[in-house]
Design brief:
heterodimer; A: about 290 residues; ABC transporter involved in vitamin B12 uptake, BtuC; two-stranded antiparallel ribbon; 4 strands; about 75% helix; about 5% strand; B: about 240 residues; alpha/beta; Rossmann fold; 4-stranded antiparallel sheet; transmembrane (chain A)
Chain lengths: ~290, ~240
């Protein structure tokens, strides 16, 4: 029983990471039709920004806050300076965002080296709390609580604010939002800022649970984030949350109860099944 | 270049639209007088909907679009709409995942008064369904919502595309009366296949064929002439 609880909580911790990366990715695609591969770079930048700040000040909280700000600012710069000229042109978008991912990862590698760097975290985060006999690392609770707070804040933002309304409507029919006299470009920039901030937050928190940051962490998390986005439904914020939980738990259970590596395999099989049975994803809308 | 006639609110000159390989609009020119309804007619594929979308900048276009003396042809869509143009698209295009109230809130244009009284007077059913998701409403109710979005703001001109499409006859009659009331308040350009509705509402008519204007004048002159309606629209019109 304690093993199952441990697997469930660590699975939910993984799901929290996937959700933080995938939700921004999903909204960006839903609103702007942009498959943003550079999202992985925001994640890595977030992790290294947190590392630099923690190294200089010793404050993890400050490190995470600065990482979020850096992620948001860089995402806005990328959207306004580069991507805005390429809306509607999918091949140049993919080339640009993949290029940025590779270039930023290479830049980080050249500055900080290829080896992982240890991220200092408060002692209590590395201690464990027992739940029904299962020793759960405290940092998993930090991750889960953060993701739940982000989910609640984003849900309130999407439901209660005018920009939230514009984003939800824009995911459905961007042209019609424009035909109501609304400048959707501002919403584009805002969604990019949110996506960049959440990815950077995820990067910093991935550093917390691994106690280290590495140049490749963005790329490896990005692959699973894309899978989560597709399973949840492109453009669906709630779908990303649901799919992240399913993927995170399935991976943990399959890795423990099945063979080594079974977690990744089962997630890919789940993706294939969803694409065959419900191509719009769990909570996505079918194309009309 | 043809000069706009006096009392003209909207003047379209040499409007060209290419969609992919197709040259859909081939120099469309017409005027819309201020007040009342101008019907934009033509057979299927004549370019009526593309003209609407071209006026709004929803498709890449070339040519002049003058609204009350201002050239709006180079403005992005949201700026065109902010000049006081409301749009009711073919197929309604309400936001299915949003409630009726959210659809209306989204349509509220900053800097404009919001005429909820008028909207609820014309379409009382919407007031009863504010919390309902638009995607779960009937076609007629969705059409009411699409019109309500356009009537909510201080608009000078409404572009309304096929409002009767797919509606039951009693709903078409209801809608026609709502549009007649709206036409007392704002100038309307109406694309419509239902010629009874056109006959009831339109003062002027412009007929398109294969991306060009082939006839313009009084709607009564067109619809009262069986030969003209057969020639340009391919149908006869019963006497009202």
């Amino acid at each position: 029983m304690s093993t199952f609880i441990l697997l469930t909580v660590t699975g939910l911790g993984l799901a929290a990471l996937y959700f933080l990366v995938a939700s921004g990715l999903s909204l960006i695609y839903g609103l702007m039709d942009v498959l943003n591969f550079a999202h992985g770079a925001f994640l890595t930048l977030g992790a290294y920004t947190a590392w630099v700040v923690v190294d200089a000040t010793g404050s993890l909280l400050l490190g995470v806050a600065v990482a979020i700000a850096v992620g948001a600012v860089l995402a806005v710069l990328m959207e306004t300076a580069l991507l805005r000229r390429m809306y509607g042109s999918h091949v140049p978008q993919v080339l640009l965002t993949v290029g940025l991912l590779l270039a930023i990862t290479a830049l980080i590698r050249s500055i900080f080296g290829t080896d992982a760097l240890q991220l200092a975290t408060p002692e209590w985060m590395n201690e464990v709390t027992e739940i029904l006999g299962a020793p759960i690392p405290n940092n998993r609770f930090v991750l889960i609580v953060t993701a739940v707070l982000v989910y609640l804040a984003m849900s309130a933002f999407l439901a209660k604010t005018r920009y939230g309304l514009i984003i939800r409507a824009g995911v459905e029919n961007r042209a019609m939002v424009t035909a109501l006299g609304i400048d959707v470009r501002r919403a584009f920039t805002l969604v990019f800022a949110i996506g960049g901030a959440l990815a950077a937050l995820a990067g910093a928190l991935a550093g917390v649970i691994n106690n280290a940051v590495s140049p490749e962490q963005g790329m490896s998390l990005l692959i699973f984030a894309f899978i989560v986005v597709i399973i949840g439904g492109l453009g669906s914020f709630r779908g990303s949350a649901l799919a992240a939980v399913l993927v995170g738990l399935l991976q943990q259970y399959a890795n423990f109860y099945g063979a080594v590596g079974a977690g990744d395999l089962i997630v890919v099989l789940m993706l294939a099944a969803i694409l065959l049975v419900r191509p719009q994803g769990l909570l996505g809308r079918a194309a009309s | 270049m043809t000069k706009a006639t006096e009392g003209t609110m909207l003047s379209v000159r040499g409007l060209h639209v290419h969609l992919g390989e197709s040259h859909v609009l081939q120099g469309v020119s017409f005027d819309v007088r201020a007040g009342g309804v101008t019907a934009l007619l033509g057979r299927n594929g004549a370019g009526k909907t593309t003209t609407m979308r071209g006026l709004l900048g929803l498709v890449p276009r070339r040519g002049e679009v003058i609204l009350d003396g201002e050239d709006i042809s180079r403005l992005p869509t949201h700026e065109v709409v902010r000049r006081g143009i409301g749009y009711v698209p073919e197929n309604r295009e309400v936001f299915a995942g949003l409630t009726v109230q959210e659809n209306l809130r989204l349509a509220e244009r900053p800097g404009s008064r919001h005429h909820y009284d008028l909207v609820y007077e014309l379409f009382p059913r919407l007031k009863e369904r504010l919390k309902q998701r638009a995607g779960t409403m009937s076609g007629g109710e969705q059409q009411m919502l699409a019109l309500a979005r356009a009537l909510l703001n201080d608009n000078r001109l409404l572009l309304i595309d096929e409002p009767s499409q797919g509606l039951a006859p009693y709903l078409v009659a209801e809608l026609t009366e709502a549009l007649a009331r709206a036409a007392e308040l704002v100038t309307i350009v109406l694309v419509e296949q239902n010629l009874r509705m056109v006959q009831r509402l339109a003062r002027d008519a412009v007929v398109l064929d294969q991306g060009r204007v082939v006839w313009s004048g009084g709607a009564a002159d067109l619809l009262g002439d069986g030969e003209l309606t057969r020639q340009y629209l391919g149908v006869g019109v019963a006497k009202a």
